[in-house]
């Protein structure tokens, strides 16, 4: 997994686990489906801030959902008081911060069974393509509230469930804001100027090394 940081944003890309790709999304992210058998689908845990502790647990199967670990939370909503919560699928550039109205921050204490991303069950309707905001969607953002040393940090994780009947989906990348109580835009990554500095610094290091070797020769 590659990790890059700049200023106040830390960005990570999920590894590719299907090579060569069998679906278009295999070339972009980590596949978490069971090749047509939802009963054998894997689960995926994600450590957003790289401290060695799992922050979110994704359950793959006919019900594809996310469990918040510890005091972490996910942006979502309750359709009815007696049902589990659903996760909100966010478009790019939405501000993820203290207020996510009309969605709310939902943790394990609010929804012990987690939040639904997508669900598919055969109900005899050939036009039925599943429920949940990520069902049939190749890519959307999940809003995350991460607790670090007792302070709220905001993050996004990009995933999709384009083949909802298979159970599960694909995980692409994620990022979090290192400053507590500070919103982050869905899809925000390190600024291009930082990439230029990193590349430029690498070029200079190579140039200085070659000059030094030439002098020794």
Fill in the keyword field for this structure.
globular, mainly beta, 12% helix, 36% strand, two-stranded antiparallel ribbon, single chain, 14-stranded mixed β-sheet, disordered C terminus, 217 residues, 1 helix
Distance between the termini: 39 Å
- Which outline best applies? globular
Helix content: 10-25%
Structural classification: mainly beta
Largest sheet properties: 14 strands, mixed
The low-pLDDT segments are 194-216
Work out the radius of gyration: 20 Å
- Give the helix tally: 1
Classify the beta-strand content into a percent band: 35-45%
The total count of strands amounts to: 16
Compressed to H and E, one letter per element, the order equals: EEEEEEEEEEEEEEEEH
Mean pLDDT: 84
Structural notes for this entry:
This protein is mainly beta. 12% of the residues lie in helices and 36% in strands. The chain is built from one helix and 16 strands. Strands 1, 2, 3, 4, 5, 6, 7, 8, 9, 11, 12, 13, 14 and 15 form a 14-stranded mixed β-sheet that branches. The C terminus is likely disordered.
Helix and strand layout, with pairings?
Blueprint: E1 2-6, E2 9-13, E3 30-32, E4 43-46, E5 56-59, E6 63-68, E7 73-78, E8 85-87, E9 89-90, E10 95-96, E11 104-107, E12 115-119, E13 140-148, E14 151-160, E15 169-177, E16 184-185, H1 192-216
Parallel strand pairs: 8-12
Antiparallel strand pairs: 1-2, 2-15, 3-15, 4-5, 5-6, 6-12, 7-8, 7-11, 7-13, 9-13, 10-16, 13-14, 14-15
